[in-house]
Known about the structure:
The structure holds three protein chains of three kinds. Helices cover 27% and strands 5% of the residues of chain B. By secondary structure, chain B is mainly alpha-helical.
Amino acid sequence: xxxxxxxxxxxxxxxxxxxxxxxxxxxxxxxxxxxxxxxxxxxxxxxxxxxxxxxxxxxxxxxxxxxxxxxxxxxxxxxxxxxxxxxxxxxxxxxxxxxxxxxxxxxxxxxxxxxxxxxxxxxxxxxxxxxxxxxxxxxxxxxxxxxxxxxxxxxxxxxxxxxxxxxxxxxxxxxxxxxxxxxxxxxxxxxxxxxxxxxxxxxxxxxxxxxxxxxxxxxxxxxxxxxxxxxxxxxxxxxxxxxxxxxxxxxxxxxxxxxxxxxxxxxxxxxxxxxxxxxxxxxxxxxxxxxxxxxxxxxxxxxxxxxxxxxxxxxxxxxx
Amino acid sequence: xxxxxxxxxxxxxxxxxxxxxxxxxxxxxxxxxxxxxxxxxxxxxxxxxxxxxxxxxxxxxxxxxxxxxxxxxxxxxxxxxxxxxxxxxxxxxxxxxxxxxxxxxxxxxxxxxxxxxxxxxxxxxxxxxxxxxxxxxxxxxxxxxxxxxxxxxxxxxxxxxxxxxxxxxxxxxxxxxxxxxxxxxxxxxxxxxxxxxx
Amino acid sequence: xxxxxxxxxxxxxxxxxxxxxxxxxxxxxxxxxxxxxxxxxxxxxxxxxxxxxxxxxxxxxxxxxxxxxxxxxxxxxxxxxxxxxxxxxxxxxxxxxxxxxxxxxxxxxxxxxxxxxxxxxxxxxxxxxxxxxxxxxxxxxxxxxxxxxxxxxxxxxxxxxxxxxxxxxxxxxxxxxxxxxxxxxxxxxxxxxxxxxxxxxxxxxxxxxxxxxxxxxxxxxxxxxxxxxxxxxxxxxxxxxxxxxxxxxxxxxxxxxxxxxxxxxxxxxxxxxxxxxxxxxxxxxxxxxxxxxxxxxxxxxxxxxxxxxxxxxxxxxxxxxxxxxxxxxxxxxxxxxxxxxxxxxxxxxxxxxxxxxxxxxxxxxxxxxxxxxxxxxxxxxxxxxxxxxxxxxxxxxxxxxxx
Lengths: 320, 198, 403
């Protein structure tokens, strides 16, 4: 048992040792006693877990983001800030900015340019407070052999001295922010939805952790916090948004939000700004002069798995 | 064959002269003081100038006063032919456009503090080099103006910082240099299992 | 009514040594399961074998299998109430008891799989938000709870009448019984639709999935019922006619024939068209990219199913209790593999971006699952302990004093 978990996360194996109370001990006469003791331990444990897991009654009864009144939201934000200060020793900004009018966000990625350097992956992790252990990375950079785009023959684990490598090309994949998203459709509690500006978001405090959305997503755009997320306090990004990069809790789903905390303030997403080759483009699809609109107008674009009719707002193109 | 030898020889002689003049006390300190004010007047206006809020990154002082050496006072012979054996500018490895391009296909032979002019005849200063780049790389230039090619940071709905062509591409060797990738993701936990033959 | 509970409690407490051993064994298993579940709650789902690649596993596999078992009660209801087939009518109530415990296990398996069971109240319409009509999981929760209600209400009513020694008012209860037939179909269909509707997972995104679900459900559930009836007949005075068991076995043979036919159809479609949609099936049956943890399991299931089919098809072996029971065990194991891990895991392999990462349940998952199965078995035991005396007329309002 512990062997398996050691491989998964060293952090867990530490707490593992204290808890090996298996009923299959040598003495069968003890069984019933053991059994009863274990039951009480178990029951107490469940209660304790409920308490620890949900911290406070306010958190337990916290409403869905979209149903909160202004006052409720303000209270919640204050509580979250206090919670984060306690955890990371820093003052957080937990924004609740709404969508900007007449905005529909779109993203484009130039496959001709991408060199597969994974700068975007790590910029995203830092910006969006993803768990370092267990590792969560919203962006997967797929490497294909020249001449094919067969996902089954791709890899994300390439590790050469230098990129780009001869004979290969690269295709980063993240949440595609579909206009017809299968993930929000399947959520049994509407913990995830599409915002008016086209960003697919998750209310981390409403998610019940059923992972149906992960099964439904054709792009592996969703990640589950299988354990308590670990972010070094000195690396944590304190400029957050309620629906974006605020620190998450274990056993909930999270995903790329186009850096909602940045783009709702007019800034580019972190991955766009870090890309050394300028392969990543972002803008307002409703503005015919925006970069993204210009790409759609002047370049031939495609969307990943368009046959599934998910209608991503994430376009791939080849500039020459 | 003979032609080429002659060219090489000429080039060699010129280079030696050039190097000699540099070594013979006419250092850069002196040269800088000789720069006339007319060399650094307001950059020539181009009709497309105001379209982009381009960062005007001045080139470092040690580079820009090209006229210190290539000025009218010095009067080096201007050589339009490609040579491989320059004794100066050895830090520049020209790897742009194969053998068909030479320094003076971009640098203004009339005034080395500027680049060649466009059809309007007005020389382009280094800060607006993208105008010259666009002369050959028209489609790239168009894409760059739209924000398709190249990189921008800042605000998607506001002030953008444009990266110039030369911010990413060394104009003398424009091919993008390879990078060391960041580490690959950790592999997920997988059960130990017997391998199945196919 | 209070008297009923006292009487029932007395009946539950008293029993043979074998009964005590059985109950204690189950309690030990349950305690182990709870212990494992507490660990899972404390550390998160990282203690399971699930990853971002294979995000559902053993729990959902067991859930799927048990929905089938629960749905199978309909196979008893149809001959009993619609065709008035006497031998089965006598025993249908036990089938419904099985459905109840199977449903309880289903709900527990889903809860065990939930990352945040403390937020389960988000599912309650009004208090929370149940995403209807869009989410199939939402529908599944509705139909499972509805079916649970029907299977508690119908036998509850009949038993209540029997307890009071009054005849059941069939005109009152028959509409509920009739309703439970399509409802049983709906629980399994909706569960199939949970997977079926995901275009991202070609292995599930085949219209044959729901029919196959039903066909296999009508194999495994009744097989379990046959075994339980024999146990009940052996340990209590409750009479189960052989005819009833043979009739059920006959129905299993038909269901298995359909199941194997649909499997063949699935095989043909995938193999002949030979697209990327073949990959999950390839992973399941021969292994993919050198990985094939499930290969021995699925061939075991396939072999078991075929052998069981032959056993149930030949009247001679179907009516011989040794072969019949072997057939039942084979079919239960076969379908458990096929409709459990064999259905859920290949849906995730290869992953939607093409990678092949395998899954195996960890000891914690297995312990939690054993715990849930034990709770189910204990529930069934306790229900039967009360139900059978009522059915036999031993435990009524008048006779409850004499235990």
